[in-house]
């Protein structure tokens, strides 16, 4: 009976969600850009290499035992993973945080834990009951593959998130981020790695459970802000690499703002009041303020997509596909000033520019010249012209009997060119 019992024990252990509290992230440094963890965070926080199996880490987490929330989780985006992982009914906790001498080097189901012991330095599910806050995941369960998404359902990966902010604001941005990255990687033939760090800013005034709702109130700090930083590293061409970040106040009315990674570093340094400046990515991962407007345009398009009638929780997949295709093509060409009104590419030695004229143009690879589409909106909107003028509502971009796309821009019948790829069913 000993051998079968031992085999079953090993089998159950292999399929349980596991983690390891470490003194250094060296064991799971691959989740960080250039194998370098963010700087300027709480040095007393616990470092966790989260994993499902003994030798397969899923992501890395820096966890504050003082606030009982993670300061960040770092992970690598996999475009092949399904977005329909769903929610978990069973949550895990990390015994090594509350009991450092514990020999258990893996997560355990919360229901199987000693709650009084666990509560010493980490949150438990009852802290969230009737609090008005969701268990907001930093590493979203919809990003990892099916065999790994269960590892995200640990209370070391969640922080109190306002329910409205979680289910509307943050959800929309997560969905837009996932869609944008999947299409961008597909456009680049998978020749890139995407490093993501999502984190919190511990607040100063609100803790849960609220007084009067629990015998042990005000244990878990509610973050004032949530943030995400993205590093897109192209394997072959650094001109195609970029980074950006966004941060939002943890309330339904709080907006989410997109910015460069260096600006996000500065804002987090101010919000966290850290003695050392925050730096999320080593060398800020190809930080470039010139690319932010294009990325902002993509997110504006994705977040404001129409939803199916009668289903306010799901997006119109066909609309998303069309917008993504145009937006990513736009990002690829606009960033490098390659796309012209007629859809041609500029010569590498003569990119879009004024070149002594009053408009942007370039010499094209087919031996001609053409005006440039130098704004993202020229490609993804049927109501914006090459000069960024707005078409009249009754005159979206179209051919109207000519060989090029154009529209009237005012009642004086002034007109301007539109970009060739601005719409699929132009008149």
Q: How many structural domains does the protein architecture include?
A: 1
CATH fold name, please?
A: Extracellular Endonuclease, Chain A
* CATH level-two architecture: 3-Layer(aba) Sandwich
- The rough form would be described as elongated
Helix content: 10-25%
What is the radius of gyration?
Answer: 25 Å
How many helices? 8
Order of helices and strands: HEEEEEHEHEEHEEEEHHHEEHEE
Spatial sequence of strands, sheet with the most strands? 1-2-3-4-9-10-11-12
Q: What is the mean predicted local confidence, pLDDT?
A: 79
Which residues sit in consecutive blocks of at least 5 with pLDDT less than 50? 1-17, 305-320, 332-337, 374-380
Q: Kindly estimate the percentage of residues that lie in beta strands according to DSSP.
A: 15-25%
Largest sheet: 8 strands, antiparallel
CATH class, named Alpha Beta
Q: Termini separation (Å)?
A: 78 Å
Tally the beta strands: 16
Describe this structure in words.
By secondary structure, the chain is of the alpha+beta class. It has one domain: Extracellular Endonuclease, subunit A (Extracellular Endonuclease, Chain A, 3-Layer(aba) Sandwich). 22% of the residues lie in helices and 23% in strands. The chain has helices spanning 2-14, 95-98, 115-118, 163-187, 261-272, 292-303, 317-335, 377-380; strands spanning 18-22, 46-53, 56-64, 69-76, 92-93, 108-109, 133-137, 158-162, 192-208, 220-234, 242-249, 256-259, 361-363, 369-371, 406-408, 415-417. The strands form five sheets. An eight-stranded antiparallel β-sheet has the order 1-2-3-4-9-10-11-12, sandwiched between helices. It has a two-stranded antiparallel sheet with strand order 5-6. Strands 7-8 form a two-stranded antiparallel ribbon. Helix 4 (163-187) crosses helix 6 and helix 6 packs antiparallel against helix 7 (317-335). The longest helix has 25 residues, at 163-187. It is elongated, with a radius of gyration of 25 Å. The chain starts with a helix and ends in a 10-residue tail after the last strand. The relative contact order is 0.09. The model is unreliable at 1-17, 305-320, 332-337 and 374-380 (pLDDT under 50). Residues 55-274 form the DNA/RNA non-specific endonuclease/pyrophosphatase/phosphodiesterase domain. Residues 56-270 form the ENPP1-3/EXOG-like endonuclease/phosphodiesterase domain. Keywords: Signal. It comes from Cirrhinus molitorella. This is Endonuclease domain-containing 1 protein.
């Amino acid at each position: 009976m000993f051998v079968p019992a031992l085999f079953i024990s090993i089998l159950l252990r292999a399929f349980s969600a596991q983690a390891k509290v470490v003194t250094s992230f060296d064991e799971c440094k691959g989740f960080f850009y250039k194998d370098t963890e963010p700087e300027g965070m709480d040095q007393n926080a616990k470092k966790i290499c989260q994993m499902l199996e003994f030798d397969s880490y899923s992501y890395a987490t820096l966890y504050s035992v003082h606030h009982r929330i993670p300061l960040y989780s770092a992970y690598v985006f996999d475009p092949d993973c399904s977005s329909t992982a769903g929610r978990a009914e069973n949550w895990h906790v990390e015994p090594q945080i509350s009991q450092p001498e514990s020999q258990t080097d893996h997560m355990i189901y919360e229901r199987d834990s000693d709650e009084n012991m666990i509560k010493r330095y980490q949150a438990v599910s009852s802290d969230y009951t009737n609090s008005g806050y969701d268990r907001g995941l930093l590493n979203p369960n919809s990003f990892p593959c099916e065999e790994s998404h269960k590892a995200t359902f640990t209370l070391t990966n969640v922080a109190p998130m306002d329910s409205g902010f979680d289910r509307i604001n943050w959800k929309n941005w997560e969905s837009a981020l996932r869609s944008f990255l999947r299409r961008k990687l597909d456009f680049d033939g998978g020749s890139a790695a995407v490093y993501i760090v999502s984190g919190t800013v511990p607040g100063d005034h609100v803790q849960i459970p609220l007084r009067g709702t629990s015998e042990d109130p005000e244990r878990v700090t509610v973050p004032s802000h949530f943030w995400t930083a993205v590093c897109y590293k192209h394997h072959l061409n650094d001109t195609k690499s970029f980074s950006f970040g966004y941060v939002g106040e943890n309330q339904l009315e709080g907006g989410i703002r997109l910015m460069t990674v260096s600006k996000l570093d500065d804002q987090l340094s101010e919000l966290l009041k850290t003695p050392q400046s925050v730096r999320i990515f080593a060398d800020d991962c190809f930080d470039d303020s010139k690319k932010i407007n294009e990325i902002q345009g993509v997110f504006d398009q994705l977040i404001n997509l129409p939803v199916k009638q009668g289903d306010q929780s799901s997006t119109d997949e066909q609309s998303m596909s069309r917008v993504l295709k145009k937006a990513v093509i736009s990002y690829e060409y606009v960033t490098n000033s390659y796309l012209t009104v007629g859809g041609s590419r500029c010569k590498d030695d003569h990119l879009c520019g004024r070149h002594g004229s009053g408009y942007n143009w370039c010499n094209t690879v087919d031996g001609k010249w053409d005006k440039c589409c130098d704004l993202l909106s020229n490609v993804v909107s049927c109501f914006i012209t090459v000069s960024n003028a707005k078409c009249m509502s009754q005159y979206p971009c179209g051919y109207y009997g000519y060989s090029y796309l154009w529209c009237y821009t005012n009642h004086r019948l002034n007109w301007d060119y539109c970009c060739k790829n601005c719409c699929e069913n132009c008149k």
